Amino acid sequence: MTEMYDITIIGGGPAGLFAGFYAGMRTAKTQIIESLPQAGGQVAALYPEKMIYDVGGYAGIKAANLAKELEKQTRLVGTEIRLNETVVDIQAQADFYHVKTNRNEYDTRAILLATGNGAFNPRKLAVEGLDHLEDKKIYYHMPDVEHFENQDVLVAGGGDSAIDIALMLEPIAKSVSLVHRRQQFRGMERNVQRLQESTVKVMTPYLINDVREAVEGIDVDLKEIGTEALKATHFDKLIVNYGFTSSNKIIKGWEIDLAQEHRMFAVDSLMHTNMKNIYAIGDGVEYPGKLRLIATAFGEGPIAVNQIMNDLYPGKRGPVHSTSMFEK
Ligand SMILES: Cc1cc2nc3c(=O)[nH]c(=O)nc-3n(C[C@H](O)[C@H](O)[C@H](O)COP(=O)(O)OP(=O)(O)OC[C@H]3O[C@@H](n4cnc5c(N)ncnc54)[C@H](O)[C@@H]3O)c2cc1C
To answer: What is the mean pLDDT for each group of 10 consecutive residues in the chain (328 residues)?
Structure first.
Protein backbone atom coordinates (compact mmCIF):
# COMPACT_ATOMS: atom_id res chain seq x y z
CA MET A 1 0.00 0.00 0.00
CA THR A 2 1.41 3.39 -0.94
CA GLU A 3 0.54 6.39 1.19
CA MET A 4 -2.32 8.60 -0.11
CA TYR A 5 -1.58 12.31 -0.39
CA ASP A 6 -4.22 15.01 -0.81
CA ILE A 7 -1.94 17.06 -3.05
CA THR A 8 1.25 16.11 -4.86
CA ILE A 9 3.06 19.16 -6.19
CA ILE A 10 5.43 18.42 -9.05
CA GLY A 11 8.24 20.97 -9.04
CA GLY A 12 9.97 22.72 -6.14
CA GLY A 13 10.47 26.16 -7.70
CA PRO A 14 8.87 29.34 -6.27
CA ALA A 15 5.41 28.28 -7.52
CA GLY A 16 5.57 24.78 -6.02
CA LEU A 17 7.18 25.84 -2.75
CA PHE A 18 4.70 28.61 -1.99
CA ALA A 19 1.76 26.43 -3.00
CA GLY A 20 3.21 23.75 -0.69
CA PHE A 21 3.22 26.24 2.16
CA TYR A 22 -0.32 27.31 1.44
CA ALA A 23 -1.51 23.69 1.17
CA GLY A 24 -0.02 23.10 4.62
CA MET A 25 -2.02 26.07 5.93
CA ARG A 26 -5.12 24.37 4.55
CA THR A 27 -3.98 21.19 6.42
CA ALA A 28 -3.82 19.20 3.19
CA LYS A 29 -1.47 16.19 3.30
CA THR A 30 1.01 17.48 0.76
CA GLN A 31 4.31 16.54 -0.84
CA ILE A 32 6.54 18.39 -3.30
CA ILE A 33 8.67 16.37 -5.71
CA GLU A 34 11.72 18.13 -7.19
CA SER A 35 14.26 16.64 -9.57
CA LEU A 36 17.21 18.69 -8.31
CA PRO A 37 18.94 18.06 -4.98
CA GLN A 38 18.01 21.63 -4.00
CA ALA A 39 14.71 23.49 -3.86
CA GLY A 40 14.12 26.86 -5.56
CA GLY A 41 13.77 26.07 -9.28
CA GLN A 42 15.24 28.63 -11.68
CA VAL A 43 15.91 31.03 -8.81
CA ALA A 44 18.37 28.64 -7.13
CA ALA A 45 19.66 26.84 -10.24
CA LEU A 46 20.03 29.58 -12.87
CA TYR A 47 20.68 32.86 -11.07
CA PRO A 48 21.45 32.31 -7.35
CA GLU A 49 23.67 35.43 -7.13
CA LYS A 50 21.23 37.82 -8.83
CA MET A 51 19.30 40.37 -6.77
CA ILE A 52 15.51 40.21 -7.08
CA TYR A 53 13.61 43.48 -6.59
CA ASP A 54 10.10 42.61 -7.75
CA VAL A 55 8.89 40.25 -5.03
CA GLY A 56 6.50 41.81 -2.51
CA GLY A 57 7.94 42.44 0.94
CA TYR A 58 11.60 42.61 -0.11
CA ALA A 59 13.24 45.86 -1.23
CA GLY A 60 15.86 43.54 -2.74
CA ILE A 61 16.84 39.95 -1.96
CA LYS A 62 19.55 37.68 -3.36
CA ALA A 63 17.93 34.87 -5.36
CA ALA A 64 19.67 32.12 -3.34
CA ASN A 65 18.31 33.66 -0.13
CA LEU A 66 14.77 33.88 -1.51
CA ALA A 67 14.97 30.16 -2.36
CA LYS A 68 16.18 29.36 1.18
CA GLU A 69 13.43 31.47 2.80
CA LEU A 70 10.77 29.83 0.63
CA GLU A 71 11.96 26.35 1.57
CA LYS A 72 12.06 27.30 5.27
CA GLN A 73 8.52 28.70 5.09
CA THR A 74 7.21 25.56 3.36
CA ARG A 75 8.83 23.23 5.90
CA LEU A 76 7.07 25.21 8.72
CA VAL A 77 3.72 23.62 7.86
CA GLY A 78 4.87 20.01 7.52
CA THR A 79 4.71 19.76 3.73
CA GLU A 80 7.20 17.07 2.66
CA ILE A 81 9.83 18.15 0.14
CA ARG A 82 11.37 15.25 -1.79
CA LEU A 83 14.53 16.36 -3.53
CA ASN A 84 16.54 14.50 -6.18
CA GLU A 85 13.43 12.74 -7.47
CA THR A 86 11.87 13.17 -10.92
CA VAL A 87 8.26 12.38 -11.78
CA VAL A 88 8.33 10.13 -14.84
CA ASP A 89 4.67 9.11 -15.17
CA ILE A 90 1.18 9.84 -13.88
CA GLN A 91 -1.54 7.22 -14.23
CA ALA A 92 -5.22 7.96 -13.66
CA GLN A 93 -7.01 5.52 -11.29
CA ALA A 94 -10.71 5.43 -10.37
CA ASP A 95 -10.68 8.49 -8.07
CA PHE A 96 -7.01 9.26 -7.56
CA TYR A 97 -3.70 9.36 -9.43
CA HIS A 98 -0.71 7.06 -9.25
CA VAL A 99 2.53 9.03 -9.52
CA LYS A 100 5.75 7.28 -10.54
CA THR A 101 9.14 8.85 -9.98
CA ASN A 102 12.59 7.53 -10.84
CA ARG A 103 12.82 6.34 -7.23
CA ASN A 104 9.36 5.71 -5.84
CA GLU A 105 5.60 5.51 -6.36
CA TYR A 106 2.85 7.51 -4.65
CA ASP A 107 -0.93 7.82 -4.67
CA THR A 108 -2.52 11.23 -4.57
CA ARG A 109 -6.03 12.65 -4.79
CA ALA A 110 -4.92 15.78 -6.66
CA ILE A 111 -1.89 16.90 -8.60
CA LEU A 112 -0.52 20.40 -8.86
CA LEU A 113 1.90 20.83 -11.76
CA ALA A 114 4.51 23.48 -10.94
CA THR A 115 7.02 22.21 -13.45
CA GLY A 116 8.23 25.51 -14.96
CA ASN A 117 10.16 24.78 -18.16
CA GLY A 118 10.55 21.14 -17.18
CA ALA A 119 12.74 19.01 -14.93
CA PHE A 120 16.20 20.42 -14.35
CA ASN A 121 19.13 18.06 -14.75
CA PRO A 122 22.85 18.78 -14.58
CA ARG A 123 24.55 19.17 -17.98
CA LYS A 124 26.87 16.16 -18.26
CA LEU A 125 30.25 15.47 -19.86
CA ALA A 126 30.11 14.65 -23.56
CA VAL A 127 32.00 11.39 -22.95
CA GLU A 128 30.25 8.02 -23.28
CA GLY A 129 30.40 5.16 -20.77
CA LEU A 130 30.97 7.07 -17.54
CA ASP A 131 27.69 6.26 -15.77
CA HIS A 132 29.29 3.69 -13.46
CA LEU A 133 31.70 6.35 -12.13
CA GLU A 134 28.95 8.79 -11.11
CA ASP A 135 28.96 9.64 -7.41
CA LYS A 136 32.10 7.52 -7.01
CA LYS A 137 34.73 9.39 -9.01
CA ILE A 138 32.67 11.84 -11.09
CA TYR A 139 30.15 14.18 -9.46
CA TYR A 140 27.46 16.35 -11.05
CA HIS A 141 26.02 17.40 -7.68
CA MET A 142 28.15 18.43 -4.75
CA PRO A 143 28.05 15.75 -2.01
CA ASP A 144 29.48 16.21 1.53
CA VAL A 145 32.96 17.69 1.39
CA GLU A 146 34.46 14.70 3.31
CA HIS A 147 34.37 12.80 0.00
CA PHE A 148 37.26 14.98 -1.14
CA GLU A 149 39.46 14.95 1.96
CA ASN A 150 43.15 14.52 0.95
CA GLN A 151 42.18 13.92 -2.67
CA ASP A 152 43.44 15.44 -5.90
CA VAL A 153 40.30 17.05 -7.25
CA LEU A 154 39.52 18.54 -10.65
CA VAL A 155 36.57 20.96 -10.89
CA ALA A 156 35.22 21.73 -14.38
CA GLY A 157 33.23 24.90 -15.10
CA GLY A 158 33.55 28.66 -15.39
CA GLY A 159 30.71 30.16 -13.36
CA ASP A 160 30.42 31.30 -9.76
CA SER A 161 29.41 27.89 -8.46
CA ALA A 162 32.43 26.15 -10.03
CA ILE A 163 34.70 28.77 -8.41
CA ASP A 164 32.84 28.44 -5.09
CA ILE A 165 33.30 24.66 -5.14
CA ALA A 166 37.02 24.96 -5.91
CA LEU A 167 37.54 27.49 -3.10
CA MET A 168 35.44 25.48 -0.66
CA LEU A 169 37.58 22.37 -1.28
CA GLU A 170 40.90 24.22 -1.12
CA PRO A 171 41.44 23.67 2.63
CA ILE A 172 40.11 20.08 2.55
CA ALA A 173 41.51 18.44 -0.59
CA LYS A 174 45.18 17.55 -1.21
CA SER A 175 45.05 19.67 -4.37
CA VAL A 176 42.33 21.46 -6.33
CA SER A 177 42.49 22.26 -10.06
CA LEU A 178 39.89 24.20 -12.01
CA VAL A 179 39.48 23.71 -15.75
CA HIS A 180 37.50 26.09 -17.97
CA ARG A 181 37.20 26.33 -21.72
CA ARG A 182 37.55 30.12 -21.82
CA GLN A 183 40.47 32.26 -20.69
CA GLN A 184 38.08 34.42 -18.61
CA PHE A 185 35.74 33.18 -15.87
CA ARG A 186 32.06 34.14 -15.88
CA GLY A 187 32.04 34.45 -12.07
CA MET A 188 31.72 37.70 -10.15
CA GLU A 189 34.91 39.81 -9.95
CA ARG A 190 35.20 39.29 -6.17
CA ASN A 191 35.06 35.51 -6.63
CA VAL A 192 37.57 35.55 -9.49
CA GLN A 193 39.95 37.63 -7.36
CA ARG A 194 39.67 35.15 -4.47
CA LEU A 195 40.45 32.39 -6.95
CA GLN A 196 43.57 34.19 -8.17
CA GLU A 197 44.76 34.59 -4.58
CA SER A 198 44.15 30.91 -3.75
CA THR A 199 46.28 27.79 -4.31
CA VAL A 200 43.73 26.43 -6.81
CA LYS A 201 45.54 25.52 -10.03
CA VAL A 202 43.68 27.21 -12.89
CA MET A 203 43.80 25.51 -16.30
CA THR A 204 42.42 27.63 -19.19
CA PRO A 205 41.42 27.48 -22.01
CA TYR A 206 40.93 23.71 -21.83
CA LEU A 207 38.01 21.36 -22.42
CA ILE A 208 37.66 17.83 -21.06
CA ASN A 209 38.21 15.61 -24.09
CA ASP A 210 38.21 12.15 -22.49
CA VAL A 211 37.93 10.53 -19.06
CA ARG A 212 39.06 6.95 -18.32
CA GLU A 213 38.85 4.98 -15.13
CA ALA A 214 42.25 4.20 -13.62
CA VAL A 215 43.01 1.68 -10.85
CA GLU A 216 43.23 4.64 -8.49
CA GLY A 217 41.22 7.69 -9.60
CA ILE A 218 40.72 8.77 -13.21
CA ASP A 219 42.82 9.78 -16.20
CA VAL A 220 41.58 12.99 -17.81
CA ASP A 221 42.67 14.22 -21.25
CA LEU A 222 42.31 17.98 -21.65
CA LYS A 223 42.16 19.61 -25.06
CA GLU A 224 43.58 23.12 -25.41
CA ILE A 225 41.04 25.31 -27.19
CA GLY A 226 42.53 26.76 -30.36
CA THR A 227 45.58 24.49 -30.69
CA GLU A 228 43.69 21.17 -30.14
CA ALA A 229 46.78 19.91 -28.27
CA LEU A 230 46.03 17.19 -25.70
CA LYS A 231 47.28 17.28 -22.15
CA ALA A 232 47.18 14.10 -20.03
CA THR A 233 46.25 14.59 -16.37
CA HIS A 234 45.33 12.34 -13.45
CA PHE A 235 43.00 13.07 -10.50
CA ASP A 236 41.24 11.16 -7.75
CA LYS A 237 37.91 12.89 -8.34
CA LEU A 238 36.18 15.13 -10.85
CA ILE A 239 33.34 17.56 -10.14
CA VAL A 240 31.51 18.79 -13.24
CA ASN A 241 29.67 22.11 -12.90
CA TYR A 242 28.37 22.89 -16.38
CA GLY A 243 24.95 24.25 -15.32
CA PHE A 244 21.58 22.68 -16.00
CA THR A 245 19.34 21.66 -18.85
CA SER A 246 15.57 21.61 -18.47
CA SER A 247 13.27 19.38 -20.42
CA ASN A 248 9.53 19.03 -20.62
CA LYS A 249 9.79 16.06 -22.99
CA ILE A 250 9.21 13.68 -20.12
CA ILE A 251 5.58 14.87 -19.88
CA LYS A 252 4.87 13.60 -23.40
CA GLY A 253 5.30 10.01 -22.22
CA TRP A 254 2.85 10.35 -19.34
CA GLU A 255 -0.27 8.25 -19.56
CA ILE A 256 -2.61 11.16 -18.97
CA ASP A 257 -3.67 13.59 -21.65
CA LEU A 258 -2.84 17.16 -20.65
CA ALA A 259 -3.91 19.89 -23.05
CA GLN A 260 -0.94 22.12 -23.78
CA GLU A 261 -0.85 25.49 -25.47
CA HIS A 262 2.54 26.67 -26.79
CA ARG A 263 4.05 23.72 -24.84
CA MET A 264 2.51 25.18 -21.64
CA PHE A 265 -0.41 23.72 -19.70
CA ALA A 266 -3.65 25.44 -20.61
CA VAL A 267 -5.52 26.40 -17.42
CA ASP A 268 -8.69 28.26 -16.54
CA SER A 269 -8.94 31.03 -13.94
CA LEU A 270 -8.99 28.39 -11.17
CA MET A 271 -5.71 26.92 -12.47
CA HIS A 272 -7.53 23.79 -13.55
CA THR A 273 -6.14 21.76 -16.50
CA ASN A 274 -8.33 19.60 -18.75
CA MET A 275 -7.93 16.66 -16.32
CA LYS A 276 -10.07 16.22 -13.19
CA ASN A 277 -8.12 17.17 -10.04
CA ILE A 278 -5.01 18.16 -11.96
CA TYR A 279 -4.05 21.81 -11.66
CA ALA A 280 -1.08 23.79 -12.91
CA ILE A 281 0.65 27.02 -11.83
CA GLY A 282 3.82 29.05 -12.43
CA ASP A 283 5.94 29.40 -15.54
CA GLY A 284 4.55 26.17 -17.02
CA VAL A 285 1.03 27.52 -17.59
CA GLU A 286 -0.60 29.65 -20.23
CA TYR A 287 -3.75 31.81 -20.03
CA PRO A 288 -4.63 35.27 -21.32
CA GLY A 289 -2.50 37.83 -19.51
CA LYS A 290 -0.08 35.30 -18.00
CA LEU A 291 3.16 36.83 -16.66
CA ARG A 292 6.19 34.59 -16.06
CA LEU A 293 7.20 36.17 -12.76
CA ILE A 294 7.70 34.94 -9.21
CA ALA A 295 4.98 37.30 -7.93
CA THR A 296 2.45 35.78 -10.33
CA ALA A 297 3.46 32.24 -9.34
CA PHE A 298 2.93 33.17 -5.66
CA GLY A 299 -0.62 34.31 -6.44
CA GLU A 300 -1.56 31.26 -8.50
CA GLY A 301 -0.62 28.77 -5.74
CA PRO A 302 -3.34 29.75 -3.22
CA ILE A 303 -5.97 29.93 -6.00
CA ALA A 304 -5.14 26.38 -7.09
CA VAL A 305 -4.87 24.97 -3.56
CA ASN A 306 -8.19 26.46 -2.44
CA GLN A 307 -9.88 25.08 -5.53
CA ILE A 308 -8.35 21.64 -4.95
CA MET A 309 -9.62 21.67 -1.36
CA ASN A 310 -13.10 22.74 -2.55
CA ASP A 311 -13.09 19.86 -5.05
CA LEU A 312 -11.73 17.22 -2.66
CA TYR A 313 -13.53 18.29 0.51
CA PRO A 314 -16.63 20.36 -0.36
CA GLY A 315 -17.88 22.16 2.71
CA LYS A 316 -14.49 22.21 4.47
CA ARG A 317 -13.72 25.58 6.08
CA GLY A 318 -12.13 28.00 3.61
CA PRO A 319 -8.90 30.01 3.69
CA VAL A 320 -7.38 31.24 6.94
CA HIS A 321 -4.84 33.99 7.54
CA SER A 322 -1.38 32.76 8.55
CA THR A 323 -1.57 34.72 11.82
CA SER A 324 -4.42 32.52 13.05
CA MET A 325 -2.12 29.49 12.66
CA PHE A 326 1.20 30.77 13.93
CA GLU A 327 0.07 32.97 16.83
CA LYS A 328 -1.69 30.14 18.66
C1 LIG B 1 17.97 34.69 -15.52
C2 LIG B 1 16.58 34.84 -14.96
C3 LIG B 1 16.29 35.92 -14.14
C4 LIG B 1 15.00 36.07 -13.63
N5 LIG B 1 14.74 37.14 -12.81
C6 LIG B 1 13.51 37.29 -12.27
C7 LIG B 1 13.21 38.39 -11.39
O8 LIG B 1 14.08 39.23 -11.10
N9 LIG B 1 11.95 38.48 -10.89
C10 LIG B 1 10.97 37.58 -11.18
O11 LIG B 1 9.84 37.71 -10.69
N12 LIG B 1 11.22 36.52 -12.01
C13 LIG B 1 12.46 36.37 -12.55
N14 LIG B 1 12.71 35.30 -13.39
C15 LIG B 1 11.60 34.35 -13.67
C16 LIG B 1 11.36 33.41 -12.48
O17 LIG B 1 12.57 32.77 -12.10
C18 LIG B 1 10.30 32.38 -12.83
O19 LIG B 1 9.10 33.08 -13.14
C20 LIG B 1 10.06 31.42 -11.68
O21 LIG B 1 11.22 30.70 -11.36
C22 LIG B 1 8.92 30.44 -12.03
O23 LIG B 1 8.78 29.54 -10.97
P24 LIG B 1 8.17 28.08 -11.19
O25 LIG B 1 8.17 27.45 -9.84
O26 LIG B 1 6.93 28.17 -11.98
O27 LIG B 1 9.21 27.34 -12.17
P28 LIG B 1 10.77 26.95 -11.97
O29 LIG B 1 11.49 27.98 -11.18
O30 LIG B 1 11.25 26.65 -13.34
O31 LIG B 1 10.70 25.60 -11.12
C32 LIG B 1 10.18 24.42 -11.67
C33 LIG B 1 10.82 23.25 -10.95
O34 LIG B 1 10.11 22.04 -11.31
C35 LIG B 1 11.05 20.99 -11.37
N36 LIG B 1 10.47 19.93 -12.22
C37 LIG B 1 9.98 20.05 -13.48
N38 LIG B 1 9.52 18.87 -13.94
C39 LIG B 1 9.72 17.98 -12.93
C40 LIG B 1 9.47 16.58 -12.81
N41 LIG B 1 8.93 15.85 -13.80
N42 LIG B 1 9.81 15.97 -11.63
C43 LIG B 1 10.39 16.69 -10.61
N44 LIG B 1 10.65 18.01 -10.69
C45 LIG B 1 10.33 18.65 -11.84
C46 LIG B 1 12.29 21.63 -12.02
O47 LIG B 1 13.48 20.87 -11.73
C48 LIG B 1 12.29 23.02 -11.35
O49 LIG B 1 13.10 23.07 -10.19
C50 LIG B 1 13.98 35.12 -13.93
C51 LIG B 1 14.27 34.03 -14.74
C52 LIG B 1 15.56 33.88 -15.26
C53 LIG B 1 15.88 32.69 -16.13
So the answer is: 90 98 96 96 90 96 96 96 95 95 96 94 92 94 90 94 93 97 86 93 96 96 93 97 84 84 91 96 95 97 97 87 76
CA distances from 287 to 290, 291, 324 (A): 5, 9, 33
CATH number, position 140: 3.50.50.60
Is 87 assigned to a binding site? yes
Domain end marker among 210, 242, 274: 242
SS3 call for 47:
coil
Q: How many domains does the chain have?
A: 2
Q: Does 300 sit in the ligand 1 pocket, CB within 6 Å?
A: no
Find out whether 47 is annotated in a ligand binding site. yes
Ligand 1 binding pocket mutation candidate from 43, 71, 74 (most atoms within 8 A of CB) = 43
Q: Find out whether 38 is annotated in a ligand binding site.
A: no
CA separation for the pair 307, 221 (Å, rounded):
56
Q: Which domain holds residue 150?
A: 124-242
